[in-house]
Write a structure and sequence with these properties.
Largest sheet: 8 strands, mixed
Active site: 360
Structural class: alpha/beta
Family: Belongs to the class I-like SAM-binding methyltransferase superfamily. RsmB/NOP family.
Oligomer: single chain
CATH architecture of the largest domain: 3-Layer(aba) Sandwich
Keywords: Methyltransferase, RNA-binding, S-adenosyl-L-methionine, Transferase
Strand content: 5-15%
Domain SAM-dependent MTase RsmB/NOP-type: 147-426
Distance between the termini: 72 Å
Mean pLDDT: 96
Protein name: 16S rRNA (Cytosine967-C5)-methyltransferase
Bound molecules: S-adenosylmethionine
Radius of gyration: 23 Å
Shape: globular
Length: 426
């Protein structure tokens, strides 16, 4: 083996750890990426490991289908993951085929659990390479149980359009501080301004090195994630409450619009990001670590935003791991949390105050069904229908009920899946 290939082994071992964690639990990928063993990789190795794991997760459906035709019985998890990563390198990362195979075989030999499977790894990868890239029918890109749910919710054509987005790496979307020179920034970042004001650039990677980062005039926020806070249309001098605020994208929008903003999240560690973001953007907000459902504070607000914890299936473009770590039982237990938080949010509204509820989930139980149940149990709350293309939402996202069901294919180039509804306190 050449020195060059040996150099790549720690990065590939890192990718194995990432994909193993991503597939075993929700949030596993991020946890593994901050684990010591991973952080000790060279920055270049870390970047390759992450890109490799992400590409494998983005194409996992088709890769596993191709592997199914080559494996007579299930190999140990490390071996399956080595095969997945080997195939990913050869088919999706332009790694030369011989390097993809040789490094996979080498890593099989480097561990007791996979050593007996060195020959199998070699033979299976060579077989896959002979067959060529696996077919990427949309229905094979998502886990079958999730795809079946999407067909049930919107029909096959829409489910296919949603699933097709899994295979694409997304652009980077930025929200701009009011008053920023959008056209000049778009030119500098080689981007375009989308409806609603989001700047979309095809740049990727370390944003802290990008123009005007230190000036604090923009922050990273998906085009769909920027819509819910706009629906509150807060004015200078109004009070706003952002429940479940970290890392703070929506807090920044509310504070930048001039509202006296309180940001609540139960994770003190994640709130640190809110504080850092506020400082960089030269904005202020009161930051509170508390459970949004139990926060003991008697104030009421003109505007409340609840971006509730959810299955996050709408974020698969940036986090393909959410698809594979989600379990059918998650949706029901998260829906119970969401309804508790909605009641708490409603109690913190002034009369006439507006509440926007949103989730980055594609699942109706976390969206449409929450709205109907909330309205049924809260006579003090009315739905405040959202207008066409309000907040920069794609026209196709508006439901007959006046809520938003933003699907990842609703804008060219994609955007995250989100559900949003606006209410008013009678
Ligand atoms: C979808 S993220 C919020 C993203 C954020 N709104 C933004 O735009 O940057 C959900 C957040 O909810 C927080 N969370 C979960 N359960 C919570 C609870 N019971 N009370 C307060 N925060 C909670 C999590 O810590 C997480 O930061």
């Amino acid at each position: 083996m050449t020195q060059e290939l040996n150099d790549g082994l720690p990065a590939r071992e890192g990718a194995l750890a990432l994909i193993d964690a991503a597939l075993s639990r929700r949030g596993g990928l991020d946890e593994a990426a901050s684990a010591n063993a991973f952080r000790f990789l060279e920055p270049r190795e870390r970047a390759f490991a992450r890109a490799l794991a992400m590409a494998a997760l983005r194409h996992l459906g088709p890769i596993d289908r191709a592997l199914a035709g080559k494996l007579a019985k299930e190999p140990p998890p490390r071996v399956r993951n080595l095969l997945r990563l080997g195939a990913t390198q050869a088919f999706f990362l332009e790694v030369p085929a011989f390097a993809a195979v040789a490094t996979s075989v080498e890593l099989a030999g480097a561990n007791k659990a996979s050593r007996p499977f060195k020959g199998l790894v070699n033979a299976v990868l060579r077989g896959l390479l002979r067959d060529g890239p696996p077919s990427a029918e949309p229905e094979h890109l998502a886990p079958p149980w999730l795809y079946a749910r999407w067909v049930g919710a919107w029909g096959k054509e829409t489910a296919d359009a949603v699933a097709a987005q899994i295979g694409f790496e997304p652009a980077t979307d930025l929200s701009l501080k009011p008053g920023a020179d959008a056209e000049a920034l778009a030119a500098e970042l080689e981007g375009e301004i989308l409806p609603g004001g989001t700047l979309r650039t095809s740049r990727r990677g370390d944003v802290s090195a990008w123009p005007a980062f230190e000036d604090g005039v923009w922050w990273v926020q998906d085009a769909a994630a920027a819509v819910p806070a706009r629906l509150l249309d807060v004015q200078p001098g109004q009070t706003a409450l952002d429940l479940c605020a970290a890392p703070g994208g929506k807090t920044l929008q509310l504070a930048a619009a001039g509202a006296a903003t309180v940001a609540v999240d139960r994770s003190a560690a994640r709130l640190q990001r809110v504080t850092e973001n506020l400082a960089r953007l030269n904005l202020t907000a009161e930051v509170v670590a508390a459970d949004a459902g139990a926060w003991d504070d008697a104030r009421t607000f003109d505007a409340v935003l609840l971006d509730a914890p959810c299955s996050a299936t709408g974020t698969f473009r940036r986090h393909p791991d959410v698809l594979w770590a989600a379990r059918p039982g998650d949706v029901a237990s998260l829906a119970a949390v969401q309804s508790r938080l909605l009641d708490s949010a409603a109690g913190r509204l002034k009369p006439g105050g507006r509440l926007v509820y949103c989730v980055c989930s594609l699942e109706p139980e976390e969206g449409e069904a929450q709205v109907e149940a909330f309205l049924a149990r809260r006579p003090d709350i009315a739905l405040d229908p959202i207008g066409p293309e309000e907040g920069g939402a794609p026209a196709a996202s508006l439901t007959p009920r006046g809520t938003l069901r933003i699907l990842p294919h609703h804008r060219e180039g994609g955007l995250d899946g989100f559900f949003a509804a606006r209410f008013v306190k009678r």
